[in-house]
Amino acid sequence: LAKTTQPISMDSYEGQEVNITCSHNNIATNDYITWYQQFPSQGPRFIIQGYKTKVTNEVASLFIPADRKSSTLSLPRVSLSDTAVYYCLVGDDTGGFKTIFGAGTRLFVKA
Amino acid sequence: KAGVTQTPRYLIKTRGQQVTLSCSPISGHRSVSWYQQTPGQGLQFLFEYFSETQRNKGNFPGRFSGRQFSNSRSEMNVSTLELGDSALYLCASSLGDRGELFFGEGSRLTVL
């Protein structure tokens, strides 16, 4: 599994766009990139998954450059309720085979 | 449809005891994986079952074991509990392909 590196923490204000970048230099050809969100004392929740270029859903966008050695999760107009830990996962087993969660990025949104 | 259900939600045990945690996956999901989450170590993969077979295992001692039944429900067992086993134990189900993981609320175990 490709090792991922994310910032440990980030601060933002309500209404701002937040971009969290994940580095995965050893990503393999078959690997997908998946992001999860976790609130305290709850299980992680799937946000978005992509392989290349850009993926967008109702809550976030995922930007993946051509070399796929990094990816950026973009959260538009964050609110206080977006305060959480965000995990970037890379692998071809993101369906749950042996999913390895890194330390994640703790996002704190301020009023 | 109903989400992933974990029972019990909270439990307290003493050192040396054993514990069994249960997980009912989303209907139709054949893969169930288990994770341990502690403040110091984060989310760590324990094992994953697919169609009653253990498909992958993390780096945990043999005191941690699990199984999956024909209806995809899964249990994990921890024997000879240690203080360091205090954690939130999370179960996740998926279709078993590259799809997303759906997590339960977790079982919070406290070992005294």
What does this structure look like?
The complex is a heterodimer of chains A (111) and B (112). Chain A has 111 residues and is mainly beta. Chain A has no helices and nine strands. In chain A, the strands form two sheets. Chain A has a five-stranded mixed β-sheet, with no helix packed on it. Chain A has a four-stranded antiparallel β-sheet with strand order 2-7-6-5, with no helix packed on it. The N and C termini of chain A lie far apart (38 Å). Chain B is mostly beta strands. In chain B, strands 2, 4, 5, 6, 9, 10 and 11 form a seven-stranded mixed β-sheet that branches. A four-stranded antiparallel β-sheet of chain B has the order 1-3-8-7, with no helix packed on it. The radius of gyration of chain B is 13 Å and the shape is globular. The mean pLDDT of chain B is 92. The interface between A and B is medium-sized, with 24 and 32 residues.
Which terms summarize this structure?
heterodimer; A: mainly beta; 4-stranded antiparallel sheet; globular; B: mainly beta; 7-stranded mixed sheet; 11 strands
